[in-house]
Design goal:
This protein is an alpha/beta fold. Helix content is 34%, strand content 18%. The protein contains seven helices and six strands, in the order αβαββααβαβαβα. A six-stranded mixed beta sheet has the order 1-6-5-4-2-3. Helix 2 runs parallel beside helix 7. The longest helix has 19 residues. The chain is globular, with a radius of gyration of 15 Å. Bound molecules: zinc ion. Zinc ion binds next to helix 5.
């Protein structure tokens, strides 16, 4: 694939349910699709539960994130955009900030991030900058786009992935609970 091809994907293609392609070029983000093992399933389920909690208590929109450090949950949080009146308070950003504070580090190279949904470009940038070693996500962006979220979300791993040159391992887990969050919370929060 030629460099920059990702950026030419049309809105129609993104919304139609296309999934990230596995890009062999090492200068691009490579997404591995996997069935959930017990460990990944446990942490991703926690991230999905956070997405529900965030909406229930009015903190934000249905997105959750968990950071695991040495096989222990270090941070479990959700989108705080509505409570903080901060459009950057995405679950992944909150998680990275709290994890760095807890570890007193600016690098999270011993940590894994579990996100209920595919990260947006801002979060993918933060994941890259924080040197997380592994990203595991559940829902594909289209599930969020289908209930009204901006389709820019799908550019995180796919579009600007051409800047991704680290050793970050990216896994898209095949779990339906992550995509069900959007339909189940639809109408319970403002976009
Ligand atoms: Zn984000």
């Amino acid at each position: 694939m030629m460099s920059g091809e990702n950026n030419t994907i049309t809105e129609t293609q993104k919304v139609s349910g296309s999934v990230p392609s596995v890009v062999p070029d090492q200068d691009h983000a490579t997404v591995e699709f996997a069935a959930a093992n017990d460990r990944d399933h446990k942490y991703l389920t926690q991230a999905v539960e956070e997405a529900y909690i965030g909406v229930e208590c009015g903190d934000g929109r249905p997105f959750g994130a968990v950071i695991v450090h040495k096989n222990e949950i270090l941070v479990s949080c959700h989108n705080m955009v509505l409570k903080y009146k901060d459009p950057t308070a995405h679950a992944e950003i909150i998680a990275i900030r709290e994890a760095c504070k807890k570890l007193n580090e600016i690098k999270l190279s011993e940590c894994e991030l579990y996100a209920s949904c595919e990260p947006c470009p801002m979060c993918f940038g933060a994941i890259h900058l924080s040197r997380l070693k592994r990203l595991v996500y559940g829902a594909k962006a289209e599930a969020a786009v289908a209930i009204g979220f901006n389709s820019i979300i799908a550019d995180g791993v796919r579009g600007i992935g051409c800047y991704h040159k680290s050793n970050l391992e990216i896994i898209k887990l095949d779990v339906s609970i992550a995509e069900q969050v959007f339909q189940n919370t639809k109408g319970k929060f403002s976009i």
